[in-house]
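ok here's Succinylglutamate desuccinylase / Aspartoacylase family protein:
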Amino acid sequence: MAKREKATIDHWQGQEVPIGQSTDVKLAVSESYTGISLKIPIRIIRSQNEGPTVFITAALHGDELNGTGAIRQLLCDETLSLKCGNLILVPILNLLAFDRHSRYLPDRRDLNRCFPGSESGSLASRIASQIFSEIIGRSDYGIDLHTASVRRTNYPNVRADLRNPEAKRLAFSFGTEVILDASGPLGSLRREACHVGCPTIVLEGGEVWKVEPRIVETAVRGIKNVLVKLEMIDGEMDRPERQVVITRSQWIRADRGGFLQFHVHPGQIVETNQPLATNTDLLGREQSVLLAPYEGVVIGMTTLPAISPGEPVCHIGKFQKSTAGEELLESRSDSDNSLEERLVEHLASNVMVTEREPEGDSPAQP
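and the structure:
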């Protein structure tokens, strides 16, 4: 882990940020074609007492708006009162992509592959450098909110490098049923933040271009759970009874072009060789059936039934122990109107699902 000297939060690019107050600041990250400064709006909430600084960011990919909805809810929450520490809330991190309703910057680069950035590099690299030095450079912990990419949806899951004890603490505290253990891609914000000593986790949930109520509820609950765990706010943690760690996952891909009839929905527990989707031609004649390669949980899936050969259909996270699926189902059924039950019901409405009997010991399609 690289060592760093954390920057002070008392001042933000020449603006004073008083203790015990909420202050709106702006971070200049680039310029428009007309030379006008491009500034990211940020709210900093400071307690009267010393404590950790936590950043919450959304729309690092400009079309992923569920996190923006969650942060806006926090911004409007008059009951949110810090006992100690500081909170940095950034509802839109990638303004240039957000203005274009796009995942990517105008130079077609993915900002989430450009950290820690460079002051003299490409447009994306320069923006990443400013964000990294001014936000991550002031923070002790971070939560970065994401969704699935276009034409896909994700069952809410936290992604974290569980080799990092503090990132692991954040991941389990956040309170999703599913936790993916991975360090993240090279150049991603969470990976590079962890590398310089700012443990950071990612929430993946829902779809692009939407603010989905159940995903927002999950994000807000998780953020508050983390703040309770860090003793920054009062309250009780609200987590599911069971949480499962996924160390291996696989996208099941179509072997032929066609039109899909789905048999599972996001968040569903699946068994080995359970049918995931039937591929038919446009007149309804069956061409192939995609099967689950192992027992696990549906982390994500396409929402577009028209498919080409090789395109991803269903993302399955493999259970590490044989009883994991039963435990998750039991946990859901034991809770009356739990958030997890409502999440499954909500996300199931994004795809048309019909049942199909398992095909015995037939091999899974590639």
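+1. The two ends are 38 Å apart (CA to CA).
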